[in-house]
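Exercise: predict the structure of this protein bound to zinc ion.
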Amino acid sequence: MVSPIDSTLRAVARHGLILEVTCDRCGHQALFDPGWLSQKMNPLTDIKRVPFRCQCGSKTIKVTAYPDDWLRRQREAEKEIRRQKSD
Ligand SMILES: [Zn+2]
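Solution:
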């Protein structure tokens, strides 16, 4: 996990990070591009203060910033693990 000191949308986008949002209630996860979000709202909004809302209606969510390539590798690793388990 990466914790940039400046965690505004603009700063996070500049670091090439991607936001992983996890719902505390149902565990639903979604990814957001901070660059896209910063066009929709004030780019100086802290990522923890972006008013995300889950499909289940919960607003209690956890936001984590990851490097884009790290997340992709992580997903590939998970896929690989699943593939090995199903063999
Ligand atoms: Zn939810």
